[in-house]
Amino acid sequence: MKNLIMAAMVGICALTLQNCYGQSSADQGKPAAKAPEYSHTETAPVKKSNDDWRKILSPEVYNVARLKGTERPFTSEYEHSKEIGTFYCAVCGNPLFKSDAKYESGCGWPSFFEPINKKSIIEATDNSLGMHRIEVMCGRCKSHLGHVFDDGPPPTGLRYCINGVVLDFEKAKTAEKKFNSKKKPESGS
User: Fold this and answer.
1) Is 20 annotated as a binding residue?
2) Which partner for 160 in 61, 87, 112, 169 could form a disulfide, CB atoms 3.0-4.6 Å apart?
3) Cα 120–Cα 178–Cα 41 angle in degrees, nearest 5
4) What is the mean predicted confidence (pLDDT) over 79-106?
5) Which reaction does it catalyse (predicted)?
6) In the predicted model, is pLDDT for residue 186 greater than 80?
7) What is the pTM of this model?
8) Which of 110, 159, 119, 161 is nearest to 138 (CA)?
9) CA of 127: how far to CAs of 28, 62, 183, in Å?
10) 13, 20, 107, 161: which one is catalytic?
């Protein structure tokens, strides 16, 4: 009986940790559903209730974007990415950051020193958790992205510390074309 109780406690702990730390390996790699309003070119504001977002977004994206959660540090696929391209809001597709504004801050989340433009993000005071911070939200759908701090590199001195789970990335087409043009043509014999 003692072993059965111990096994049940271990199982409960394992399930709790899995829920705390994101999706299970069975869910990873599945493409996330996109909102019908998802667009890299549309600029009209997206207004949906949290209930509507909950039906569309994965639990991880919903937790960060709509409930102002935070992903675990050092878990984002974009934290050390050196790819050239554009980072978009994973919720609505709004362009947020260019890869040339990304840098290694060592904080555990993707960091940028400036957004694509002033309309791509919204900043708001965040006094939660007993701290004074500046929250960063998507300028189109108002999803929570992360926070901005004044300890970044030149030229702005800012560090936009962004949850990778709320980012989508698209490689630059010009970089891809440039790479492909440098390839040696195949000889036709």
Assistant:
1) no
2) 112
3) 25
4) 95
5) L-methionyl-[protein] + [thioredoxin]-disulfide + H2O = L-methionyl-(R)-S-oxide-[protein] + [thioredoxin]-dithiol
6) no
7) 0.75
8) 119
9) 33, 21, 53
10) 161
3-state secondary structure at position 164: helix
* Contact (Cβ atoms closer than 8 angstroms) between residue 39 and residue 93: yes
pLDDT over 50 at 50, yes or no: yes
Is the separation of the CB atoms in 95 and 40 below 8 Å?
A: yes
pLDDT in tens, 100-116: 999 999 999 999 999 99
**pLDDT at residue 182, as a whole number:** 65
- Position 56 pLDDT exceeds 60: yes
List the alpha helices (DSSP H) in 40-189: 50-56, 59-65, 173-182
Instruction: Give 63-66's long-range contacts (Cβ < 8 A, gap of 24+).
Output: 64/143, 64/144, 64/163, 64/165, 64/166, 65/90, 65/91, 65/138, 65/141, 65/143, 65/144, 65/145, 65/166, 66/143, 66/144
Q: Do residues 84 and 172 lie in contact, with contact meaning Cβ atoms separated by under 8 Å?
A: yes
Q: Which of 24-28, 43-47, 66-70 has the lowest mean pLDDT?
A: 24-28
Confirm whether 161 is a catalytic residue. yes
138 is in an annotated binding site: yes
What average pLDDT score do residues 41-61 get? 94
Q: How many CB atoms lie within 10 A of CB 121?
A: 24
